[in-house]
């Protein structure tokens, strides 16, 4: 395994958490989420990853989508987090904080001789 493979695995495991976190603040359309996430190279994604993930989260009941007209522009499908999505996000956040603390503690660990 090389560093890009490892990065891909880490990203796959955290992208869902990042998307739900953004959607807990306001509604977004798919491409807008891609643009926002592009601000962070480690978590930046593309349409081939984003749209299947949004469909799956919707199917699982964590998100709901709705269409909105935009004047002369084509209509856009926006996503909002559901109550079960908020609960899922809370649980994921607790696990994320526990994981990142454990990794940090391990990296700081010094064996006593």
Defining key terms:
4 helices; 113 residues; Metal_resp_DNA-bind_regulator; 17% strand; 60% helix; alpha+beta; PadR family transcriptional regulator; 3-stranded antiparallel beta sheet; 3 strands; WH-like_DNA-bd_sf
Summarize, please.
60% of the residues lie in helices and 17% in strands. The chain is an alpha+beta fold and 113 residues long.
| Total strand segments | 3
Q: Widest sheet: strand order?
A: 1-3-2
Low-confidence stretches: none
Number of helices: 4
| Terminal Cα span | 33 Å
C-alpha-based Rg, rounded: 17 Å
Helix content: 55-70%
What structural class results from the helix and strand content?
alpha+beta
What is the makeup of the main sheet?
A: 3 strands, antiparallel
Tell me about this structure.
InterPro entries: Metal_resp_DNA-bind_regulator, Tscrpt_reg_PadR_N, WH-like_DNA-bd_sf, WH_DNA-bd_sf. Residues 19-89 form the Transcription regulator PadR N-terminal domain. The chain is of the alpha+beta class. It has four helices and three strands, in the order αβααββα. Strands 1-3-2 form a three-stranded antiparallel β-sheet. α2 packs across α3. 12% of the residues are buried.
